[in-house]
Amino acid sequence: MHVREMYDLSGRIAIVTGGTGLYGSPISEGLAEAGATVIIASRNGTRCKHFAAVLSERGFNAAGYSLDLASDESIEKLVSAVIRKYGFIHILVNNAVTREGYGDLQDMNRERISHTLNVNVNGTMLLTKAVLPYMQNQGSGSIINISSIQGVTAPHFPYYEEGQSSPVGYTFEKWGMVGFTKWLAAYYGKDNIRANCISPGGYHPELKTLRPRFYHTYQEHTPLKRWPERDDIKGPVVFLASDASRYVTGVNLVMDGGFTIW
Ligand SMILES: NC(=O)c1ccc[n+]([C@@H]2O[C@H](COP(=O)([O-])OP(=O)(O)OC[C@H]3O[C@@H](n4cnc5c(N)ncnc54)[C@H](OP(=O)(O)O)[C@@H]3O)[C@@H](O)[C@H]2O)c1
Description:
Rossmann fold, 7 strands, globular
């Protein structure tokens, strides 16, 4: 197989949760540019449809749908709608995150913990559960979970500016995402379904202005001496979604400019 063919996603149907967000939009765009039909899904269905229209105007295949990961009904509705219209789901990118309710440990109570877990853990697990039977029927699939550098390390608190923090629930959930990926890879490998994770570094286009000290400290710590750019995630996601990684499963691809190597 020619290597260009390996990276070609033509004819593949991909769902990207939170597909209009900071990392979600380049993930959706990258998959569409590689030829996939991208289903962009989050609570704000109008924004998803709008972004899909922007991609379609550029000649790519995309559609926007509503999805609330806190609702079983909404998960079921999305999966049935995609299967009804396209017949397949080849790629699932579990990218969405809610940060509502996050805080330091002393700020947490059962209600706040449950709020984020209900979306970030329950929702991710139940959407994946709903998609998997279709991947099994097809005899193939690629699941890509988006973790974080907080899924392979702990926040280096001395770097944080006064009033800024990194929530305990985020580290808890992002480490869980890596474990969930390995479990999926172990269980569904027999069905030719691959599960991999991407752990990106921090990305916020306005951070330089919002947190200048943190911005510079983080950048200095990073071997590549820069923050991620918007399109940096496109390569890893297309690699893991495509046949270019057809013998790769259960890995956590850390995309952080080397931030976590020391
Ligand atoms: N940005 C970073 O610095 C960074 C670094 C490392 C890893 N990551 C990871 O990258 C992924 C994306 O993060 P981001 O920074 O791009 O986030 P973001 O810009 O805040 O986007 C979050 C997305 O999740 C969706 N969402 C929130 N609650 C939802 C729900 N209940 N159901 C369905 N969708 C929901 C939002 O859309 P709606 O509001 O329309 O629902 C939005 O599209 C996350 O997994 C995050 O942990 C981010």
